[in-house]
């Protein structure tokens, strides 16, 4: 069987999709994801770089100079 991933653009589309799926008696799960996956990947990559010593740390006090 296949898994479908849909990306409704607004709450109206989300509600309509849920109603349609329920009417067909199809099991589904929801997952809340508030961040863009590409953004999350960039942050994780940056964290890995910092952990491996490839970054520069700046003290907060130095930001105002």
UniProtKB/TrEMBL annotation:
Pfam family, one: DUF2683
This protein's name: Uncharacterized protein
């Amino acid at each position: 069987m296949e898994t479908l991933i849909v990306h409704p653009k607004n709450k109206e589309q989300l509600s309509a999709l849920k109603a349609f799926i329920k009417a067909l008696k199809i099991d589904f799960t929801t997952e809340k994801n508030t961040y863009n996956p590409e953004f999350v990947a960039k942050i994780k990559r940056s964290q890995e770089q910092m952990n491996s010593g490839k970054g520069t740390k700046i003290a907060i006090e130095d930001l105002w100079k």
